[in-house]
Amino acid sequence: MDGIGPPLVTPFDDDGDVCIERLRELVVWVESRGVDFLVPCGSNSEAELLTADERARVIETVVDAASVPVLAGTGHPGLRETVDATARATAAGADAALIVTPFYYDHDQASLADYYRAVADAAEIPVYLYSVPKYAGVRLTPETVAELATHPNIAGVKDSSGDIGAFVRICRRTADEGFDPMIGSGSVLAQALDAGATGGVLALANIAPQHATSVFDTHTDDPAAARAAAADLVELNHAVTAGHGVAGLKYAMRQRGAPAGEVRSPHQPADDEARDRLDALVDGIDTSETPNS
Q1: What are the tens digits of pLDDT across the range 153-168?
Q2: Cβ distance 65 to 27 under 8 Å?
Q3: pLDDT at residue 285 in the model
């Protein structure tokens, strides 16, 4: 995986059911705006609010509708659930699996490393580590990532810690392993690319996919221009992540014409104050973008 991929939101209807038709339409919407791969069942997909069968169906739908690689979120708190979900994603045709760190219980780095090796040994598709301490309550250290990067079926990491210093250490420690370090925060995309990131899995790519991919594409030849373009997106990125969460992200996407659907309980729709703020930010996006032909 390299380039930019959105942790694809899961469209729900007014009754809270997964809307498969909108999900297919959403795949087309983001693909036509230049994303390099898709990530169903990630954090912004409300994956933890989906049943195991719903998650499998979402992945199947995205794989069927996509013409770009699919990195499927298959992580659960326990090993057996994760191995089973990864096998189902493999059967559906996913290209690789994104495995969040086990959460709820506390685990030390040695336990996390053992867990990931067991998942990778069982998986028939490449495994990507996913470190998101805000949600999981634990982070993968650069030392643990470097240790796991030597496993033949562990292909990369999505680091959503926002800690650029730690990300630089990951990039340096895995540079000789054919390993894909990817950033999970749009607010530090340019800095991560400077450090050696091979791409990003970004909530921002759900609402401004062409802008996010432009930062990535521009960075190779003109890093300064890429940094400037990325800086222009920081306020929007903050608003649809830490500011107003998945409800704000889905509202902003709908304002841009994306078939994002509603949130699932216990999430609540964005309130009036959030909508006003998001409307202003969406209005500031360059509306001249057109889908790629």
Answers
A1: 999 999 999 999 999 9
A2: yes
A3: 83
d(CA 213, CA 235): 17
Hey, what domains does the chain have and what are their CATH numbers? 3-283 (3.20.20.70)
Cβ distance 132 to 161 under 8 Å? Answer: yes
Helix axes 245-255, 272-283, angle to 10 degrees: 50
Q: Token pair 């999900």 is at which residue?
A: 23
All residue ranges of the chain with pLDDT < 70 are 286-293
Q: What backbone phi and psi angles, to 5 degrees, belong to 288? A: -80, -5
Which tokens belong to 99?
């495995």
Which residues sit opposite 18 in a β-bridge?
12
Residues in the chain: 293
Residue type, 13: D
DSSP bridge pairs for 99: 129
**Pair of tokens at residue 49:** 């609010």
In the structure encoding, which two tokens stand for residue 255, read together? Answer: 């304002």
Q: How far is CA 196 from the centre of its chain?
A: 18
Distance CA 245, CA 8 (A): 14
The β-bridge partners of 5 are: 201
CA distance linking residue 59 with residue 65, whole number of Å: 10
Residue type, 128: Y
Which among 77, 168, 88 is positioned nearest to 123, based on CA atoms?
Answer: 88
Q: Which residues are identified as catalytic?
A: 130, 158
